[in-house]
Amino acid sequence: MPRIAREEHHRIRERVEAGEKVAAVAASYGCTPANIYAILARLRQAGPGTEAPGRALADRTQPVVPPVEAGPVPELPLVPPEPQAMEALRSTQPVGKPPAGTPAKKQAAPPPLLSHNSSPAPEGTRAGFALMMRTGDGEEAMTPFRSLEELLSAAKPLLRQAARSPDPVWFSIQRVDLDKLEEAL
Question: Which segments show compositional bias classed as Pro residues (predicted)?
Answer without folding.
Answer: 74-83
